[in-house]
Amino acid sequence: MKLNQNGRIQADQATQLNELTAVGFTPDLDQSLSDAANAAFRKLFPEAFSETAKQQALASVAVNGEQDLNQFLASQPTQISRTDFYAVALQLLGFEPKTDYQLADSLKFMAETKLPVVNADIATTADFWSAMYLLLCTRTKHLVTLLDALAARGFYRDFQAGKKTPEYLFFNGKAQNVFDARKIHREVVWIESDMDTDHDGKRDMLETTIFRPQETDAGVKMPVLFTANPYFHGTNDVDWITHKPDPKLAVKTHSYTKDEVTYTPTTPAELPHQPVTGESRTAEVYSDQGGSYMFNDYMLGRGFVTVYSGGVGTRGSDGVRSTGGTSETDSAVAVIEWLTGKRRAFTNRTDGIEIKAWWCNGKVAMTGKSYLGTLSIAAATSGVAGLKTVISESAISSWYDYYRENGLVVAPGGFQGEDADVLAVDTFSRQKQAGDMLKIQAEWDKTLAAITKDQDREFGDYTKWWDERNYRNNLKNIKADVIIEHGLNDWNVKPANAIRYWNGIQDLPINKKLFLHQGQHTYLDNIRSLDFVDQLNLWLSYELLGVQNGAPAALPNVTVQDNVEPETWHTYDEFGTADAKHTDKPYNLQNDMASKRAGFPDNATAIFKEDKEDSDGFEAEIIKPHSKYDGARLWLDLPAETKDVTLEGIPHLKLRLWIDQPTAILSARLVDVGEAKRFAPVAGVVDAGGWNLGYDYKTVSIQEFKPAKETASKLVSFGHVNVQNQKNAYENAPVTPGKPFTVDFDLQPTHLHLPAGRHLALIIHGADMAQTQRTETVVNFHIDLAQSTLTLRYRK
Predict the structure, then answer these.
(1) Using one digit for the tens of pLDDT, what is the confidence trace for 342-377?
(2) Which controlled-vocabulary keywords does the entry list (predicted)?
(3) Structurally, what CATH architecture does the domain formed by 184-555 represent?
């Protein structure tokens, strides 16, 4: 086990003593070491109220082979060896002697687990308090730091007692769990937008749900973690809208110009405001729905109000869905504007009784994974004031990169038949209220028909409709600091969404951080080997509460999980840039790779259907060194590595080829080859319910990416292109059968530790049964290997 920690900051002695005092210790340097240790260790058992109970708790901890902690303290030690201190510390951190470590080898285990230790034996009271401060900041077996674990056991139970106005508490730069997450106001309000997406002549009202600690009633102004969640009120899981993978690929006869595919925003019509008939500080509607995001729940007891809103077209709101359109961006922005005092909200949809976010300190962060994180990027590109930071996990930065690729319709995550109209239906939870639907059905039918038409499944080109949904067009407007988290094996929201977003903000005068893990479409919050939530606490305490903890400088710019060494994370200043730390290697497909032939027939669809395979089966089979698809692909081996290398960045493929049809799908896969136990792309549970989000509150299971069974190969990256889209996704060129042409396209970004003895292979094939249309026309491909190149970037 390795417990990597980047969120702990250095503190001088004066700061340590002040913070220890603030959380309830009594560090007196004139006190004897024995008295200091006796007092301090007793406080580490907050569930023990009486002296007898505390002594029993101390006696349950072993110091060495002869003494328990109660006996050791009773002996009034004048010094404490590091071995003894950390033998005790490890038990306080949740580890078990004999099972996890040996008492006499505590320092060895601390080093192996990557836990920090003091440099020398504890000889003075000052040494002791320094060691105790470090221990409180040290991660436990259960994901969080010791002080965080103590808080979940009641350490701060009485912190607010006797205070007229509740107070925040910070330790090592992070907000502490001193507010009661069990006692919250669950309120619903309706925010007046500038839109009328359902064309009823009225401004769309946006239902918004607030989870607000009751301490705000006593005058505490709190920041907000806002999650724009289209799934908050449920989904419409219906099959009728799902498309079938088309067996034909259309020949394109029209090519677009850049101007033709550039979206120009329109100014909304000025609509009358709802008259204000009164004002209230109290909401009229209680939310019976719980929070939907574990990190928000974790921060609630640390003094962060959490807010959810589904946006237009979701249950309780007006309007219709647009799947990433400007109306969904404007929905999120409207919520932020209300939270920061720049927009009206009402206690219900009709009476005109205004309610303000009087409890908000005017600072907002957006959080969320997938669609939720996508809308945080969208809102950030508006430049809205008051949005201080966005934390997007597995998020889309351009919807074209989600549902399309280089002139092709693609299926995210292998979910064949999904598209923008399918997601619009899925998230149109307004229809769950049948009475509301009576007045909106006709308008919704028209809207859905327009989405189906404009998404254009026939040709798959980048159009003005997709340009509206490309948030990277507006990155220059971002003023909020940014955290991006993404899985390197996320074939649902592919890594290109994160890396193109990351690359696009490099010149902006904002703070920015990137986290890349080895998983699929998943959270990083509860992954044990990294202190992700602790780093986010440090970040948000700085961004939203003004704590001068140096978070932008303290946290690494880039954190990447290793794909070979378990529980290992690397930190860098940048990712995949063209600089002195990287080198580009172009591989000629004829001279630098080994291939048995230069052409193949794309008859994969026939093989797929004959074997009645599914998307997962195809993805597993196509990358095998020996596969039933051997005849329908080219397999090109690169030489085996003689030493460990790290591939990092965006692979690029340039192919010179000819085909015997007027159009075709061309796919490429980059594969790590060599028998090895590789990580499963889905993290497994290592501690069921082991993460306590607060005192007497919710729990979440802790997970970790673990090596799975041995395999001969693993997908590293891939890409697809319509051979008529030889320059970009909107310009089309005619293809003459038998006439050579060239295509250039990027594969998905990656970071791959390739050990000595293993090698990369490039697979070139036609239709992708998991990701593209399943075309039935057999296309014969002929690759000019001598005129074709794969370019890879390596970290030196």
Answers:
(1) 999 999 999 999 999 999 999 999 999 999 999 999
(2) Aminopeptidase, Hydrolase, Protease, Serine protease
(3) 3-Layer(aba) Sandwich (3.40)
Cβ–Cβ < 8 Å for 355, 215: no
| Residue range 505-535, pLDDT digits in tens | 999 999 999 999 999 999 999 999 999 999 9
Tell me the two tokens of residue 214. 């009751």
Query: What ranges do the domains of the chain cover?
Result: 13-152, 184-555, 582-795
CA–CA separation, 496 vs 367, rounded Å? 20
CB atoms under 10 Å from CB of 266, counted, come to: 7
Do the domains 184-555 and 582-795 sit in the same CATH topology, yes or no?
Answer: no
For residue 555, the model assigns a pLDDT of 99
How far is the C-alpha of 686 from the C-alpha of 464, rounded, in Å?
47
Which residue bears the tokens 């959380």?
A: 23
pLDDT at 484: 99
Residue 564: phi and psi, rounded to 5, are: -115, -50
First to last CA, the chain: 28
- Tell me the CATH number for domain 582-795: 2.60.120.260
**3-state class of 667 per DSSP?**
strand
Catalytic residue among 309, 370, 394, 788: 370
Regarding pTM above 0.90, the answer is yes
Active site residue 759: no
CA angle 369, 375, 381 (to 5 degrees): 125
Instruction: Give residue-wise pLDDT tens across range 615-673.
Output: 999 999 999 999 999 999 999 999 999 999 999 999 999 999 999 999 999 999 999 99
Distance set, CA 61 to CA 94, 129, 542 (Å): 11, 20, 37
Residues 6+ apart with CB under 8 A from 214: 180, 183, 184, 185
Q: For residue 510, what pLDDT is reported? A: 99
The residue type found at 32 is S
Mean pLDDT of the chain: 97
Catalytic residue among 419, 490, 602, 672: 490
Closest-CA residue to 744 (of 655, 668, 634, 636): 655
Q: Tell me the backbone φ, ψ of residue 545, rounded to 5 degrees.
A: -120, 0
- The Cα 439–Cα 443 span in angstroms is 8
720 assigned to active site: no
Of the candidates 521, 751, 753, 765, the residue annotated as catalytic is 521
